[in-house]
């Protein structure tokens, strides 16, 4: 009976509130990560003197740091130098920093996979570099990048659970509070967490498969 007792209306409402926070953090982080990742990946591909090297160095440093350390830095270290964010934005900024670095490599690899002749052909028609990038290079590269991008975004959704360390009231945090009040609810709460994360990530994986199918249909 303890298994089903764990899913009282109050507990379900509390879990749902945490799930909403997880979804909100994920959506905002995904949008920002995609934007900054695309910019950094394009800069690295373009080999802009000095700028590309700086961006590459920053990306390499971030990619080799644990996400948990970045979360600690945004929430505990930045206030020491006068930059303070609430828990929600601390989590979003940390996830954005980390995932942007990961996505930038996916963008760079996708652009490198496009034949160089495409760039040369575009420039030869009188188009500017930026016009060739946005009209020719990026659309072609994006098709091949979709599975890797979605896979990275699935990791982002799962990584939101690390924000429990700064007490963000997300899905894992709220489940932890529930089973902290009654140790008999540990298994039911882990079951709820498993189901919740599985549904979100599985839907994203279906989205990836859909775009993959569309890519090969062209």
Automatic annotation (TrEMBL):
ABC transmembrane type-1 domain location: 19-208
Transmembrane regions listed in the UniProt entry: 20-42, 54-75, 87-107, 119-138, 187-207
Topological type in the membrane: Multi-pass membrane protein
One protein family per Pfam: BPD_transp_1
Gene3D superfamilies linked: MetI-like (1.10.3720.10)
Compartment(s) where it occurs, according to its Swiss-Prot or TrEMBL record: Cell membrane
Assigned keywords, A-Z: Cell membrane, Membrane, Transmembrane, Transmembrane helix, Transport
Main localization (coarse): membrane
PROSITE patterns associated with the record: ABC_TM1
Family: Belongs to the binding-protein-dependent transport system permease family.
Name by which UniProt lists this protein: Amino acid ABC transporter permease
């Amino acid at each position: 009976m303890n298994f089903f007792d764990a899913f009282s209306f109050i507990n379900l409402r509390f879990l749902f509130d945490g799930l909403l926070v997880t979804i909100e953090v994920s959506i905002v982080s995904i949008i920002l990560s995609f934007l900054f990742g695309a910019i950094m990946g394009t800069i690295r591909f373009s080999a802009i003197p000095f700028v590309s090297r700086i961006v590459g160095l920053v990306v390499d440093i971030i990619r080799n740091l644990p996400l948990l350390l970045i979360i600690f830095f945004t929430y505990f270290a930045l206030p020491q130098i006068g930059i303070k964010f609430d828990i929600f934005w601390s989590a979003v900024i940390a996830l954005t920093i980390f995932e942007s670095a990961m996505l930038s490599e996916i963008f760079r690899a996708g652009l490198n996979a496009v034949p160089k002749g495409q760039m040369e052909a575009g420039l030869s028609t009188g188009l500017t570099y930026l016009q060739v990038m946005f009209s020719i290079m990026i659309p072609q590269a994006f098709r091949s990048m979709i599975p890797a991008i979605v896979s990275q975004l699935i990791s982002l959704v799962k990584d939101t659970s690390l924000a429990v360390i700064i007490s963000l009231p997300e899905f894992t945090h709220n489940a932890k509070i529930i089973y902290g009040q009654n140790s008999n609810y540990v298994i039911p709460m882990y079951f709820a967490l498993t189901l919740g994360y599985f549904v979100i990530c599985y839907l994203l994986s279906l989205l990836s498969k859909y775009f993959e199918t569309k890519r090969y249909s062209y």
